[in-house]
């Protein structure tokens, strides 16, 4: 039974770590290296968007309307003429079109080099004044808010310094820190700070007499944790769900730490005994004012920083999922360079392959030419290989239009694309209310702690 329980806690920890990786949200920054992504409601004509961009001086745009067959072949060649009959080639071209729409299909996407960022912002402002069907915008207007994880890290280090269980609290602080890296929003920061305080209080009494009793009596632990979870749900269901998994994983860390502690005690000839019970221990280690002051400071700074970065990309009912090279998981709907190489080989070899045979990565092309008054037949043999991929890669820059393959090439040969939200978080009323309640509960609890610190009359030594 103990092994089964340990297995469940281990599963909770591994699941939490996996979710922090796979469901991480990119709050800003470039979804494509070297390019900004302009999103416009699908109903807005492309010619109108291109005209507005041109007026503002944006001369290089990669969009759906300026995509052609990405091959350096004559338009009247037999290879080009037979493309529509080639299932593999048509599959690539169809999937490539997905790069020009968000995942929901509500927005049409335009890729603009980053050196047009200022002019692009001007064009977006102009279009938002004229477009009535919805809002236009750019995927990234601000940088990644590194300050949020930094706040949590500094606060965690401070608590580790003040606790007697430094190793335990250090291990417990890892997941809240990485949570704010994966979900760097105001709600995540406040939730992580609250949970760190709860973990700090629990660590100070962990392993002492009446440990379970005080946990059952201290409803503030459950209240602070509950508000932390609710706060994370204000940023979305996934953020709240992952935070709930994080709470379970923290219990798992307590379980394994205690298990290792028991094993060490059994092997040691001398073990220290904690004389004072949980009720006799100072929960804040006598540093209430400093800890709470840092908590207030970080909370206020987080509010200010959230207001500064507020409102990049967000729909009224959720976030926009962009095709992105920074996505955590590849989408089969979005082709990569390997798919393009296979497309190129398929188009060039299709007219010379037998339809009665299975697809092969080799092709034998018959050539006819005149020699000494006679028609002579020769054959060219080529195969799909790394050398062939290199030749195709080199020919991408020779394409005579703004081919999306040029963008793919700039991402690197090993890139894979999926859907990712930049996760820019609006400081909505619900988040503000929840954060205010969290802060009020913590303030009331802190005042209660200060009141109970004062020695009561008649409680002298006897």
Q: Can you summarize this structure?
A:
With 462 residues, this protein is mainly α. 52% of the residues lie in helices and 10% in strands. It has helices spanning 2-22, 46-55, 78-81, 87-96, 117-130, 147-162, 166-182, 186-205, 211-217, 219-233, 237-267, 288-308, 337-349, 386-395, 404-410, 429-453; strands at 35-41, 107-113, 137-138, 321-324, 362-371, 374-383, 418-421.
Key traits:
mainly alpha; two-stranded antiparallel ribbon
List the helices and strands and how they pair.
Elements (H helix, E strand, L loop, with lengths): L1 H21 L12 E7 L4 H10 L22 H4 L5 H10 L10 E7 L3 H14 L6 E2 L8 H16 L3 H17 L3 H20 L5 H7 L1 H15 L3 H31 L20 H21 L12 E4 L12 H13 L12 E10 L2 E10 L2 H10 L8 H7 L7 E4 L7 H25 L9
Antiparallel strand pairs: 1-2, 1-3, 4-7, 5-6
Helix pairs in contact: 1-7, 1-11, 2-5, 6-7, 6-8, 6-12, 7-8, 7-11, 8-10, 8-12, 8-16, 10-11, 10-16, 13-14
Structure in words:
A hairpin with a 2-residue loop joins β5 and β6. It is built from 16 helices and seven strands. The chain starts with a helix and ends in a 9-residue tail after the last helix. The radius of gyration is 30 Å and the shape is elongated. With 462 residues, it is mainly alpha-helical. The strands form three sheets. It has a three-stranded antiparallel β-sheet, with helices on one face. Strands 4-7 form a two-stranded antiparallel ribbon.
């Amino acid at each position: 039974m103990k092994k089964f329980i340990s297995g469940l806690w281990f599963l909770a920890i591994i699941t939490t770590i996996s979710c922090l990786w796979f469901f991480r949200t990119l709050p800003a920054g470039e979804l494509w290296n070297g390019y900004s992504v302009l999103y416009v409601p699908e109903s807005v004509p492309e010619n109108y968007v291109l005209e507005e961009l041109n007026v503002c001086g944006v001369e290089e745009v990669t969009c759906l309307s300026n995509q052609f067959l990405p091959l350096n072949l004559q338009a009247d060649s037999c290879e080009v003429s037979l493309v529509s009959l080639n299932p593999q080639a048509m599959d690539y071209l169809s999937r490539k079109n997905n790069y020009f729409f968000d995942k929901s299909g509500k927005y049409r996407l335009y890729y603009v080099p980053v050196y047009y960022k200022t002019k692009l912002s001007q064009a977006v402002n102009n279009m938002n004044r004229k477009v009535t069907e919805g809002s236009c915008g750019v995927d990234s207007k601000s940088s990644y808010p590194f300050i949020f994880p930094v706040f949590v890290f500094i606060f965690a280090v401070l608590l580790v310094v003040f606790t007697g269980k430094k190793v335990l609290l250090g291990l417990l602080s890892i997941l809240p820190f990485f949570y704010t890296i994966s979900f760097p929003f105001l709600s995540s920061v406040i939730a992580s700070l609250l949970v760190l305080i709860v973990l700090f209080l629990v660590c100070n009494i962990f392993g002492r007499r009446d440990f379970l009793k005080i946990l059952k009596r201290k409803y503030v632990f459950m209240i602070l944790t509950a508000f932390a979870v609710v706060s994370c749900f204000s940023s979305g269901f996934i953020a709240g769900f992952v935070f709930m998994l994080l709470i379970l994983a923290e219990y798992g860390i307590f379980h394994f730490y205690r298990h290792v502690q028991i094993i060490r005690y059994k092997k040691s000839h001398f073990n220290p005994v904690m004389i004072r019970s949980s009720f006799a221990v100072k929960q804040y280690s006598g540093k209430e004012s400093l800890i709470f002051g840092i908590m207030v400071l970080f909370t206020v700074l987080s509010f200010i920083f959230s207001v500064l970065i507020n409102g990049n990309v967000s729909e009224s009912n959720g976030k926009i999922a962009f095709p992105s090279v920074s996505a955590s998981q590849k989408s089969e709907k979005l082709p990569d360079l390997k798919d393009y190489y296979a497309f190129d080989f398929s188009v060039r070899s299709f007219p010379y392959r037998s339809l009665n045979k299975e697809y092969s990565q080799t092709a034998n092309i018959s050539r006819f030419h005149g020699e000494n008054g006679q028609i002579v037949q020769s054959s060219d043999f080529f195969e799909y290989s790394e050398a062939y991929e290199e030749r195709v890669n080199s020919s991408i820059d020779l394409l005579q239009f703004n081919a999306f393959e040029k963008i793919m090439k700039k991402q690197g040969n090993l890139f894979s694309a999926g859907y990712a939200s930049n996760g820019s978080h609006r400081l909505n009323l619900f988040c503000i209310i929840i954060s205010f309640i969290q802060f009020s509960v913590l303030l009331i609890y802190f005042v209660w702690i200060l009141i109970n610190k004062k020695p009561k009359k008649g409680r002298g030594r006897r």
